[in-house]
Amino acid sequence: MTVLRSFSEHAGTLLKGLWWRAYSRQHLGADVLAGVVVAVLVLPQSLAYALLAGLPPQAGLYVSILPVLAYALVGSSMTQAVGPVAITAIVTFSVLSPIAVPGSAQYVSMAAALALMSGLMVLAMGLLRLGFLASLLSRPVVSGFISGSAWLILISQMKLMLGVSAPGVGAWGQLSATVAHLPQAHLPTVALAAVSVGVLVATRSALAPLLVRWGLARGPADMVVRLMPLAVVVLSTVAVVAWELDTRHGVAVVGQIKQGLPEMGMLLPGLSELGLLVVPALILAFIGTVQNIAMAQALAIKRRERVNPNQELVGLGLSNVVASVAGGMPVGGGLSRTAINVAAGAQTPLASVVAAFAMLALVWAGTAGFARIPLPVLAASIVVAAVNMVDVAEFRRAWAYDRADALAWLGTALGVLVLGLQGGIVLGIALSLATLLYRASTPHIAVVGRVAGTEHFRNVERHGVETLPGVLFLRIDESIFFGNLRAIEARLMAELAKLAEPRAVVLIMSAVNRVDLTGLEALTDLQRDLSARGVVLHVAEVKGPVQDRMQGTALLAGLEGRLHLSTNAAYVALQDRG
Amino acid sequence: MTVLRSFSEHAGTLLKGLWWRAYSRQHLGADVLAGVVVAVLVLPQSLAYALLAGLPPQAGLYVSILPVLAYALVGSSMTQAVGPVAITAIVTFSVLSPIAVPGSAQYVSMAAALALMSGLMVLAMGLLRLGFLASLLSRPVVSGFISGSAWLILISQMKLMLGVSAPGVGAWGQLSATVAHLPQAHLPTVALAAVSVGVLVATRSALAPLLVRWGLARGPADMVVRLMPLAVVVLSTVAVVAWELDTRHGVAVVGQIKQGLPEMGMLLPGLSELGLLVVPALILAFIGTVQNIAMAQALAIKRRERVNPNQELVGLGLSNVVASVAGGMPVGGGLSRTAINVAAGAQTPLASVVAAFAMLALVWAGTAGFARIPLPVLAASIVVAAVNMVDVAEFRRAWAYDRADALAWLGTALGVLVLGLQGGIVLGIALSLATLLYRASTPHIAVVGRVAGTEHFRNVERHGVETLPGVLFLRIDESIFFGNLRAIEARLMAELAKLAEPRAVVLIMSAVNRVDLTGLEALTDLQRDLSARGVVLHVAEVKGPVQDRMQGTALLAGLEGRLHLSTNAAYVALQDRG
Predict the structure, then answer these.
(1) Going residue by residue through chain B (578 aa), what tens digit of pLDDT does each one get?
(2) What is the SS3 assignment for B475?
(3) Are A554 and A450 contained in the same domain?
(4) Same-domain pairing of B476 and B366
(5) ipTM associated with this complex
């Protein structure tokens, strides 16, 4: 409840609200320019992600219009751009391909229904202020999930880059089928893909520093780098047309794209098919939510803005609901899309509004020119983007800081590969919770003594301290709950056994934030147990909320007079009696 | 690992070990008497629980011989008695009745296989020192589970007490079928059951005080009360024989029992049937483990002894393995069986050894006399025992102390009724974990100030304290992890907004026992974020293990010089600068 309350309290300050009311004229030029640049640059990847999702290429263009507009007006991030993105595309393909044939009319209508259902779910989550649910996943798990998904995308694109038809079920099936078809690789296709990958990788890492050395400013140099994928697509398409690579040499191309403006509306699948989509929609909603919020927050930190997770969900949900009738493909917050937006100088969501209208203009002008874009080049650009989604840096940080977090990363990433996206996300949640439980059930417990001449108590193993004969001062650095009682009791008994003539145990509870009922009853038993051995139980530094809760329990009644405000008070009392 | 290590370290002291080597002659008389008394008293309930499990009545007698002996020699509790018990009986019936017809040869062989498989699992858990897994369940959940099972037992016995045949699937199915058959209730059966219940309840609550008032000592008085179920069975059987209640009035009786000593050995079911039993065996192993350890510990506390969970599992597992070939019914640690043992004066496991031989003698002498024990009377004794398993006191304690624990009790108990035993146990684990996660994700956070003239810092809402203008002292009373970052950040920002000219935030981490990678990265972001607003982040009282882990991270590097050993040091430093 506290979370919910704190969110609603701050809704007022956190809400982006009506950004256009407070729009500052000085941003206008930058926003218009950024919008046009984004529309042009994201065009090839919009086609590519639609194909990745198993949908007709124009779907990617259509959902770059109205859904983008919807998010711009409602979402909470100032510069995040939504649209057809890699994660939602691969999730769409993963959940739909087992129940419908990709590219079929049934598949198309189910994709639209999926966008609608998951959009409504996300919208409901936002309106019900359930944005905090996204914190069910730790950063390493989210990062591992995105990395695993990137590997899935890589595997799915290999056959396009090899020019082979290699149907296989699951990641391993596809991978082994592709490897088995290696000898049949189509050479012109492989050459085109290899050159594209080479150019993209080379320009990505080396071009910007080179341009800067040649006297270009950092900003424009970055922009040139971001232009390269478009340049590669344009040049390769020119090559296809010039040398008839498609008709004469068998290089696969995008093919005929439906002309003209998108029709609004959708064909709802039957009720039984909608039933099949409930779980997939839930998965898509959850993944989309987590990814979107994580990205919006990362971006807000960089730009020193604040993000409201619930507002963010309302924007994402509404955007998907609109996408279901205006394009029919689920959308999400895009990493590269947003990066292009920021790099192009966008200052406010007006940039996205402009981008939506620019895309509308491009679609209106005609999409015939896109028909001969070579597929291996689009696949190459997806692959290069996917490689950048693999976040090995997070894994390394986790490995250095906390092995359990590193294992959670690895487990989730491998889980996505071996069990699929659904299995991976479930494994990730399970790993998050297991780590939490394991940590809490192996608490840090320190035997402490008094630093001479002070009232401070420190670990006897780390500091030279004074102790009282026959008295055990034990600091429990964890909330006491059903899962760690055995560990606490075992440690207490072991330390007690080391004392020659034990007469008292002082439990220092300064780091005990909660004691559950099982813990309370176990402490009560412990007190009785110790007392039977002639050892007196004292407690010190019990926190206010913990003590409030203990009022009237058998434990507190039995402790009368032996509950000390500070460890030093307990020390002094026991010293006098000793 | 700490848990495992501490267990093995103390194995030497905790092990009951070879109790007979250190056997004290003075206990001999008490143990022999207790053994004989237990054998006689548990005889009717052994028949009843075998019938409850869907097995022939003699199975309950057979598993009261060798399995009891096995546990007596290996188990860790001095006075716990194993044998056919209510919980394992109802679990056996619940998991087997959907896959085989109760009473059929296939059912009998599957029950034996179930005992073998779950026994091997429990044995392996004990040998692998996995006894700590039993702590995956909190006390309220275990209590709720046993209470829910007791309701299931009540429902299952109602048709026997009404003398109707009311087949129904699940608890509700059986209940509604029984209610629907109420008009057909068999009057002599109902009368016999009602009188039995009345006598048992009345003697249970009123007899002992009455006997004490008449001058009997408390011990013998309790023994007389424990004799009552046997007396009721004997008297009702005499009534059946005298008035031919079974042959002439249609009261159901136990029926012919196989004569002579049990044959050793078992008929293993086929491989495919064994496959069906894996999950049921796991469930039985888990439930048996949790119940057995919980009971052994409760008993050990009362008797000021210590229990070794792993040794306990070895005893329980071995006992079930033996039961699979010597009777063919899963066994467990019995509440009433143990209570009888203790009340009869048992001092060591020798009492159980004697009880096993006494039962052997009874079976040898002949079981023909048991054939005309009336079923409604056995059902009545089971029902009275089951009512005592419903632990409403624990629910009340939980309600008073912590609503979340109370809801976990209620959820588990209702889960057992509505979803069945398996569903109930899964729901219980889920509730335990959800409670844990919810508590950790809504941390207690206090704004503190200095108690004038001291170095102590206390909650500004609870105490009159000094503060520094523009400085926020925030104590976080919870480990920082992915689940509570939003709550912490929201609170921090809200408190900061209350300050006129914020210049510094001091995070007091005395109760922060761990910071996971997500938390570390969020703190790093927070530091950057605050610094951009002109607010300096300080931290104080970081625990040793937390600080060790932070060595070399970006957070610690950025905090240089602003990590204070005590809150007071931070206060003094900020006062000087203020």
Answers:
(1) 343 443 444 443 334 456 777 778 888 888 888 888 888 888 888 999 999 999 999 999 999 999 999 998 887 777 788 899 888 999 899 889 888 888 888 899 999 999 999 999 999 988 888 777 776 678 888 889 889 988 988 998 898 899 888 777 777 888 888 888 888 889 999 999 999 999 988 888 888 888 888 888 877 787 788 788 888 999 999 999 999 888 888 888 888 887 777 777 777 777 778 888 888 898 889 888 888 877 777 676 666 666 677 888 899 999 999 999 988 999 998 777 787 788 778 888 899 999 999 999 988 887 788 889 999 999 998 898 888 888 898 899 889 888 888 999 999 999 988 888 878 888 888 888 888 878 888 888 999 999 888 888 888 988 888 999 999 999 998 889 888 888 898 899 899 999 988 999 999 998 898 898 889 988 988 898 888 888 999 999 998 888 888 888 888 888 877 889 889 999 999 987 65
(2) strand
(3) yes
(4) no
(5) 0.74
Q: What are the distances in angstroms from CA A151 to CA A175, A309, A317, B377? A: 11, 28, 27, 67
Question: Same domain, yes or no, for B109 and B172?
Answer: yes
**In A, residues 203-262, which contact B (CB 8 Å cutoff)?**
none
Query: Considering its fold, how many domains does chain B have in total?
Result: 2
Q: Which residues of A touch B442 (CB under 8 A)?
A: 1-3
Where do the H-state alpha helices sit in B54-186? 58-62, 66-74, 86-96, 105-127, 139-162, 170-180
Q: Shortest CA distance to B538 belongs to which of B494, B493, B487, B573?
A: B573
Q: Which residue of A has its CA nearest to B435?
A: A516
DSSP string, B9-37: HHHHHH----TTTT--GGGHHHHHHHHHH
Task: Work out how many CB contacts closer than 8 A connect A with B.
Answer: 181
Tokens of A65: 């219009």
Q: Verify that A392 and A532 share a domain, yes or no.
A: no
- Residues of B within 8 A of A400 (CB-CB) are 552
- Same structural domain, B354 and B464: no
Q: Contact A478/B6, CB-based, under 8 Å?
A: no
Structure tokens at A473: 């001062």
**Number of Cβ within a 10 Å radius of residue A461:** 10
The answer to the question of residue B433 being in a domain is no
Domain residues for the domain of A487 are: 443-577
A437/B7 Cβ within 8 A? no
Mutate to test the interface with B, among A461, A515, A516 (most CBs of B within 10 A): A516
Are residues B133 and B195 located together in one domain of the fold? yes
On the 0-12 / 13-18 / 19+ scale of CB atoms within 10 A, B290 is buried
Q: Same domain, yes or no, for A348 and A474?
A: no
Contact A490 B7 (CB under 8 A): yes
Angle, to 10 degrees, between the axis of helix A271-302 and the axis of helix A309-325? 140
In a domain, A2, yes or no: no
Is some CB atom of chain A closer than 8 A to the CB atom of B395? Answer: no
pTM greater than 0.80: no
A567 located within any domain: yes
The CATH number for A561's domain is 3.30.750.24
End-to-end CA distance of chain A: 48
E strands present in A293-389: 332-333
Q: Which residues of A touch B494 (CB under 8 A)?
A: 6, 9-10
Q: Is residue A3 part of a domain?
A: no
Interface test with A, best of B474, B477, B549 (most A CBs within 10 A): B477
Does residue B383 sit in the same domain as residue B448? no
Q: Which contiguous run of DSSP H or E holds residue B202?
A: helix B187-202
Say how far apart CA B49 and CA B37 lie, in whole Å. Answer: 19
Q: Is B307 exposed, middle or buried (0-12, 13-18, 19+ CB in 10 A)?
A: buried
**Which of B483, B494, B529 has its CB closest to that of A9?**
B494
pLDDT at B191: 93
